[in-house]
TrEMBL record:
Residues the record marks as active site: 175 (nucleophile), 302 (proton donor), 353 (proton acceptor)
Residue ranges occupied by any Epoxide hydrolase N-terminal domain in the UniProt entry: 4-109
Superkingdom per UniProt: Bacteria
GO molecular function, one term: epoxide hydrolase activity
Pfam families: EHN
Protein family according to the UniProt entry: Belongs to the peptidase S33 family.
Taxonomy of the source species: Bacteria, Pseudomonadati, Pseudomonadota, Alphaproteobacteria, Sphingomonadales
GO BP: any one term: epoxide metabolic process
Keyword Hydrolase part of the UniProt annotation: yes
Annotated protein name in UniProt: Epoxide hydrolase
UniProt source species: Qipengyuania flava
Keywords, in A-Z order: Aromatic hydrocarbons catabolism, Hydrolase
Matching InterPro entries: AB_hydrolase_fold (IPR029058), Epox_hydrolase-like (IPR000639), Epoxide_hydro_N (IPR010497), Epoxide_hydrolase (IPR016292)
Family matches, as Gene3D superfamilies: alpha/beta hydrolase (3.40.50.1820)
Length: 375
C-alpha cells in the first residue's frame, strides 16, 4: 500500500480521565538526600510538574496544534508511518525532512515550522516541511519484529519523500534524527541534495587523547561525564528496553521523570528546566509517549542501533551547527571524519541538545545559512 491518508488526532475523553486518576494516585518516593540533580530528577520539581499536569494542562490545545499543522499516515515496509506535512505557498520552496530524536517527538518542531514554511522576510528561504515520527514513537506503528534500525529508517524516509512527489529535497536531524539523517547521507539517494545536523556526530581518535586543543579537551571532558554520570538511560534502553518499558508505559510519573531528567541536563538553563521550556512544552512531549504507550517501543531503537550510532562516511554536501550545551560536543575535525564534504559549520551562541525546540529562531537561521550553500 502506498496511499497517503490524512490523520486527525482525537484522544478519547475516557483516556484523559484515566490519566487524571493515575496522577491522583501516585505513590511518591522520599526526597533525594542531595541538593542537586546528581541522583536524578528532583522530587520537588517533578511534583510541581505533575500538579500542573493534573490541574492546568490542556491536552486539547496540543491536539489541535498537531491537527492544524497537517497530520498524515502512510504504510512503508509494513509499518504505518505518522508524519506532519505542511507545504509553503512560496514559489521555489524546498522540501525539508526533519527528524526528531529521543526523548523528543514532532512537538520539538512546533515553534519552528511556521517560520520555515511561511517566513515573514520575503527574501528568506522557504520550505515544505515533512516531519515523521520515528517507528515506535508518537503515532507511528510499533515494529513487531527486530530490524528497524537507523539504516532501515533512512530508507523508509527516502521512500516517504518519493511517495510525496519530491524529486529533490534536504534532510535535517538531531539526536536519533542526526543518526537517521547521517544514514540518509551515507545512502546518498538521488533526490537528497544535502543534510544538516544539530548534533554533529564525531568520535575521538588515538591522537586526541593527548591534545592541547581546548575544544578537544572540552569534548573529552564532556564525553567522560556522559559515560560516568549521564548514560544510564542509554545503557538500560540499549540492553533491556522491555524492562524499563513496563514503568514507562504503566506510570505517567515514571515517564515524566525519565524525560524531565534529560530536559534538565541537556538544555542551556540556569539551574531549572523551566529556564529552557514551559511546563506545557514538556508535557506536550511526554503526552506523545503516554497517549500511544510508546515508552518501550521507543526505547528499542537503542537496542537496535546504539552501537552503530553515526558510523560510516557521508560524501554528499553536509552542514552542522554546534550548540554550546550539546550532550557530546564534537570538534569540527572529529565531525569531518564522518561528514567528508562539510560545506557549513557554525558554533552557535546559545542552546542545547533540543535545538529546534529550545531555540527555534536560531535553529531556522542555521538551516537557512547551511542550505543556502546547497541550493
Amino acid at each position: 500500500m502506498s496511499d497517503i491518508r490524512a490523520f486527525t488526532l482525537s484522544v478519547a475523553e475516557d483516556e484523559l480521565v484515566a490519566l487524571a486518576d493515575r496522577l491522583d494516585r501516585v505513590r511518591w518516593p522520599e526526597q533525594e538526600p542531595v541538593a542537586d540533580w546528581s541522583q536524578g530528577t528532583k522530587l520537588t520539581v517533578l511534583r510541581e510538574l505533575v500538579a500542573y499536569w493534573r490541574i492546568e494542562y490542556d491536552w486539547r490545545r496540543c491536539e489541535a496544534r498537531l491537527n492544524a499543522l497537517g497530520q498524515f499516515k502512510t504504510e512503508i515496509d509494513g509499518l504505518d508511518i505518522h508524519f506532519l506535512h505542511r507545504r509553503s505557498s512560496r514559489a521555489g520552496a524546498v522540501p525539508l525532512l526533519l527528524t526528531h530524536g529521543w526523548p523528543g517527538s514532532v512537538v520539538e518542531f512546533f515553534g519552528v515550522i511556521d517560520d520555515l514554511v511561511e517566513p515573514e522576510d520575503p527574501d528568506a528561504m522557504a520550505f515544505h516541511v515533512i516531519a515523521p515520527s520515528l517507528p515506535g514513537y508518537g503515532f507511528s506503528d510499533k515494529p513487531a519484529n527486530t530490524g528497524w534500525g537507523v539504516e532501515r529508517i533512512a530508507r523508509a524516509w527516502t521512500e516517504l519523500m518519493s511517495r510525496l512527489g519530491y524529486t529533490e529535497w534536504l534532510a535535517q536531524g538531531g539526536d536519533w534524527g542526526a543518526a537517521v539523517t547521517t544514514a540518509i547521507g551515507q545512502l546518498a539517494p538521488e533526490g537528497c541534495r544535502g543534510i544538516h545536523l544539530n548534533m554533529p556526530i564525531g568520535r575521538p581518535g588515538p591522537d586526541d587523547m593527548n591534545s592541547r586543543d581546548p575544544n578537544v579537551h572540552k569534548a573529552l571532558e564532556r564525553l567522560g561525564f556522559y559515560q560516568q554520570w549521564d548514560s544510564g538511560y542509554s545503557k538500560q534502553q540499549s540492553t533491556r528496553p522491555q524492562t524499563i518499558g513496563y514503568a514507562l508505559v504503566d506510570s505517567p510519573v515514571a515517564l515524566a521523570a525519565w524525560i524531565l531528567e534529560k530536559v534538565f541536563y541537556w538544555t542551556d538553563n540556569d539551574g531549572s528546566p523551566w529556564d529552557a521550556f514551559s511546563m506545557d512544552q514538556v508535557i506536550d512531549d511526554v503526552m506523545l509517549y503516554w497517549v500511544p504507550a510508546t515508552g518501550a517501543s521507543a526505547a528499542r531503537l537503542y537496542w537496535e542501533s546504539f552501537t552503530d550510532f553515526g558510523d560510516g562516511k557521508v560524501t554528499i554536501p553536509a552542514g552542522a551547527s554546534a550548540f554550546p550545551k550539546e550532550i557530546l560536543p564534537a570538534p569540527r575535525e572529529w565531525v569531518e571524519r564522518t561528514l567528508t564534504n562539510l560545506v557549513y559549520w557554525n558554533e552557535v551562541e546559545k542552546g542545547g541538545h533540543f535545538a529546534a525546540w529550545e531555540q527555534p529562531e536560531l535553529f531556522a537561521r542555521e538551516l537557512r545559512a547551511c542550505f543556502a550553500k546547497m541550493t
